[in-house]
Design goal:
- By secondary structure, the chain is of the alpha+beta class.
- It has one domain.
- It has helices spanning 2-20, 33-36, 95-98, 125-134; strands at 46-50, 61-65, 71-72, 87-89, 119-121.
- The strands form two sheets. Strands 1-2-3 form a three-stranded antiparallel beta sheet, with no helix packed on it. Strands 4-5 form a two-stranded antiparallel ribbon.
- A hairpin with a 5-residue loop joins strand 2 and strand 3 (71-72).
């Protein structure tokens, strides 16, 4: 009988552990507000920066979607590479973070779609606000 209850507690504790873990994509990039403030928050576009100061992001990519709080993201190839609520998009269409074959002599604005890097992208700021609510953070921009 003791073994049965121990198994129930172990399974319940494991379920709570997995429910409490926030996926990396969508989580805050850093506790260092100065580092986070380097990501432009433009309500009209998606912006991204790569910096090792984003200690919460395993690939150091920090993105803001249409004015959202900056969040961790990663490169993707298709929708299944991204968590629910995020889309795999070629959101950035210039520079080394946008173009797979970028070099300083080209701007890659006429590059075919398959040659752009794709990232897990929140389609609007509401996705990040919902994530903040889900994990008990203020949506005030911090």
């Amino acid at each position: 009988m003791v073994h049965k209850w121990a198994a129930v507690l172990l399974v319940s504790g494991g379920a709570l552990f997995f429910m409490a873990c926030e996926p990396e994509v969508g989580s805050p990039c850093s506790v260092d507000q100065d580092a986070v403030d380097k990501v432009p928050r433009d309500p009209d576009q998606v912006t991204i920066r790569q910096d090792v100061a984003y200690e919460n992001c395993s690939k150091a990519y920090c993105m803001s979607s249409y004015g959202s709080r900056p969040y961790c993201t990663r490169r993707c190839e298709g929708a299944l590479d991204c968590p629910a609520g995020f889309e795999c998009q070629a959101s950035i269409r210039f520079g080394a973070l946008g173009c797979k074959d970028w070099d300083q002599s080209t701007d890659c604005t006429d590059t075919p779609d398959e040659l752009y890097h794709k990232y897990c992208t929140a389609p609007d700021a509401a996705v990040i606000e919902e994530r903040d609510d889900q994990y008990g953070r203020s949506s005030s921009g911090t």
